[in-house]
């Protein structure tokens, strides 16, 4: 049997213990939620440098630099900026890039014919069709018409399926 003093002591001890445990839990929670500031520019510069060296190494080993082909249809202004930035990025890492800028009224079959030619061209390593496409062309059909091996964006259904391996 606990006397009155013993009971009070136990209650105080219990309260202290509880408060220590809660504080510890709080600390752990805080640790888990602590934010890490990522310096995006620094990370990007490191990736550019890594890729630049990889391309240099390929060339030093007697292989040609990779060749990226960008396909833009129509005159969406934002698309113009994105494509320009992608060409700049390619230049920065030393890869060759070519742009095919087709008019807004390009037919689906003309675009698919171009993609077929690029798919089988051994001098082309990567193909990127800038989206959005004009309304009369189904993007899904176009994305699935880029060879999965040359699909830079990973928009082909086969490559989207492969994303599950990353989870
Ligand atoms: N073939 C493709 N077409 C389109 C894509 C794409 O990935 N491949 N995405 C968009 C356009 N786009 C690139 O082409 C793009 C749009 C937005 C951003 C982005 O990161 N935006 C950030 C701001 C980034 C910054 O300030 O530097 C944001 O919105 O918070 C990247 C790429 C549709 N077409």
TrEMBL record:
Pfam families: THF_DHG_CYH (PF00763). GO terms for biological process: tetrahydrofolate interconversion. GO terms for molecular function: methenyltetrahydrofolate cyclohydrolase activity; methylenetetrahydrofolate dehydrogenase (NADP+) activity. InterPro entries: Aminoacid_DH-like_N_sf, THF_DH/CycHdrlase, THF_DH/CycHdrlase_cat_dom. Its EC number is 3.5.4.9. It is an enzyme of class 3 (hydrolase). Keywords: Hydrolase, Multifunctional enzyme, One-carbon metabolism, Oxidoreductase. Residues 38-153 form the Tetrahydrofolate dehydrogenase/cyclohydrolase catalytic domain. Coiled coil: none annotated. It catalyses: (6R)-5,10-methenyltetrahydrofolate + H2O = (6R)-10-formyltetrahydrofolate + H(+). Gene3D superfamilies: Leucine Dehydrogenase, chain A, domain 1. GO terms for cellular component: cytosol. Homodimer. This is methenyltetrahydrofolate cyclohydrolase. It comes from Cherax quadricarinatus.
